[in-house]
Design a protein that fits this description.
mainly alpha, extended
Length: 356
């Protein structure tokens, strides 16, 4: 067959021979007379797959092109109503995590947030002198977002993010005992994870870099936090976890890694740039400042007037208590409860009316 028509190729397969014309493989002008001359007749071309469609230099009537199949739009994120239902499922999953997995994942989350805090401190230790305060805050916030990116994508249990379990409680998928038990143990072991990183960073000596400027920056951050008025710490905590829980909420809307990172990074950069207060981050920031403030190598670099409130009482009662209360309000009420009321409560009411 190939000897009679050089354009007709025959291949043997496991299911028999297959014939088709390879007209495009030859750099020659092709027309019906040429094909007849070489023996590649219309009858023979019919043996080729798709041979009936060869109208070379002899166009005839062509059929109307087939209508393209309908295009299904690609949705790259979970829309808000669906996202609210997704977050109820997330709440159920988190409430079902048992010991000791919960403790290890809580330790990891505290450590991850502390690693983000280290990035923030190192990057901003002298940046304002080059680019000013505003840009320094923004870049520092982007650096700090490392912590929540590791928590969400790596998988860990963070107290502030777990305030969203309240959505599952309102939907009656999570019990009050599960909710409070998760919050208590995760909060406690977030503290453990944060202190582990304080210990490691202190003895790493990295804070001595840049002539001790990183250490000075760490102490000044801690002193400013521990000296906040109680009410200011509370309201900064509310605003902080409103944004943190929005970051977690929006990350669950994304369906790919890049969109999840962007959803986390923007709200976290906003809360850091604004100077809001995060309880788990402060479990690292203030203990590190307490550890460094008396180090001999930093004494000549620190302003004693700024250190007056940097003590254990200022840390626990002046900062951690009001910030934690504020974080609970911002996350559980301003995000979890509001979205539940907006998207899930009406559906529940409609379902109940339908049964009546």
């Amino acid at each position: 067959m190939a000897e009679q028509c050089q354009f007709l190729k025959v291949y043997n397969t496991g299911n028999g021979s297959v014939s088709y014309c390879e007209l495009a493989a030859f750099n020659q002008p092709v027309n019906p007379d040429f094909l007849e001359k070489i023996g590649c007749t219309a009858e023979r071309r019919k043996e080729c797959s798709g041979g009936n469609g060869l109208n070379i230099n002899n166009p005839g009537p062509t059929a109307a092109p087939a209508s393209p199949p309908p295009v299904t739009p690609v949705v790259s994120f979970n829309p808000p109503p669906q996202l609210a239902r997704t977050m109820v499922g997330v709440a159920e999953s988190k409430a079902a995590v048992t010991m000791p997995s919960l403790l290890w994942l809580a330790i990891l989350a505290g450590a991850y947030i502390a690693l983000g805090a280290i990035m923030f401190t190192i990057i901003t230790n002298d940046l304002a002198s080059f680019i000013g305060d505003g840009l320094t805050r923004m870049i520092g916030g982007i650096a700090f977002s490392l912590g929540l990116i590791l928590v969400v994508l790596g998988g860990a249990e963070l107290f502030t993010g777990n305030n969203l379990i309240f959505t599952g409680y309102l939907e009656k998928k999570v019990t009050g005992k599960q909710l409070l038990g998760n919050w208590f143990w995760v909060y406690l072991f977030n503290f453990v994870g944060s202190l582990v990183v304080v210990f490691l960073f202190y003895y790493s000596g990295i804070w001595k870099a840049n002539g001790g400027a990183i250490g000075v920056r760490a102490v000044n951050i801690a002193a400013a936090k521990a000296s906040l008025p109680w009410a200011e710490a509370l309201f900064r905590g509310v605003l902080c976890n409103w944004l943190v829980c929005l970051a977690v909420w929006l990350a669950n809307a994304g369906r790919d890694v890049v969109s999840k990172i962007a959803a986390i990074m923007i709200p976290i950069a906003a809360f850091v740039a604004a100077g809001f207060e995060h309880s788990v981050a402060n479990m690292y920031f203030i203990p590190l400042g307490l550890a460094l403030k008396s180090h001999p190598s930093l004494q000549a670099l620190l302003d004693p007037a700024l250190l007056a409130g940097l003590n254990l009482k200022g840390f626990l009662l002046g900062n951690l208590v009001p910030v934690t209360i504020g974080n609970l309000i911002g996350g559980a009420l301003f995000v979890a409860a509001v979205y539940w009321r907006a998207y899930l409560a009406p559906q529940k009411k409609m379902a109940m009316n339908g049964r009546n």
